[in-house]
Amino acid sequence: MESELKDLNPKPISQQQQPLPEPIDDRSTKDDYPLLLKPAVNIEELEKKFAAYVRNDVYGTMGRGELPWAEKFLLGIALLTLVPIRVVVSLTILVVYYLICRVCTLFLAPNREEEDQEDYAHMGGWRRAVIVRSGRFLARVMLFVLGFYWINETYRNLDINSETECNDLSEEPKRPGAIISNHISYLDILYHMSSFFPSFVAKRSVAKLPLVGLISKCLGCVFVQRESKSSDFKGVSAVVNERVREAHQNKFAPMMMLFPEGTTTNGDFLLPFKTGAFLSKAPVLPVILRYPYQRFSPAWDSISGVRHIMLLLCQFVNYLEVTRLPVYSPSQQEKDDPKLYAENVRRLMAREGNLTMSDIGLAEKRIYHAALNGSNNRLPSVLHRKDD
Asked: N or C terminus of the chain with fewer C-beta within 10 Å?
């Protein structure tokens, strides 16, 4: 599920990226041409440069590290006993919730705000109550089955003398229109479902998946169809901004869950926030997630989805720590400048969550992954321009 919004005014690539390894300067007089990185890039140097995406658990960067025999023995036992049980129970929970959603949406036409948007999030009465309450309960049960037996939740109260001086903390907190969270794993979605049952941003193809498709519509997901060129399509940001404003003004409307980093990290860093989540000028609820680990990190980076799920299922106990900050109401200055709003919320989350702020983004992540996959001879071409 892709829960991200694009900045409507993206910076030039040269301003977003940190300096890359030395390029092969075949065309020293033509800075506008794509330049390939040197072959045989040093992985250790890339890990220092792109530290936000590096896995540091015992299974190695791609989950394929050399393991001691004791660890292999434990994995073998878990594959034969724990994994089958968790798979069966998880699928049962998914089917049960699908059937609940199917019953609650019988003889009910979906809401169609746009040609490409279809959902049941605005239904009312007993139908909505059953879907929300059962969804939150079963999402928590799913986390329990996956080994998250205890979730440590902290509610943080901030001092008036915070770093976010532009925020008017004297005002009474208002209902947030969106939940803002750092993004570490697909497990983030299960937690937010169990706590808030918000709407997400998802690929259009998700709506057509068996079981999951109907559930995503009941969540009120905003479906992304980037290849659409219809003149009636408002774009993801416009649809999401409408939802955020509606949630802020109407307590019965579902809140939006947004990951403004635009991609996942290893959980120790906070990437630059895209401004799309803050264009509505509505208050937001910052939530910080961390997954403490000893053997396997639940962070989903530089490892295949199947391998990640299998190793997660093999770990008997997983841990999740959540810090909820007070609702952040933007000042007039922040309302007029979404970039300032986004940056102030980011700095607040980094400080309160003890996270390191990083300036790299998705482009650097792709370069790092290409190097790990043995493609460092032909890493993605990057436009290398000199700053004015």
From this structure: C
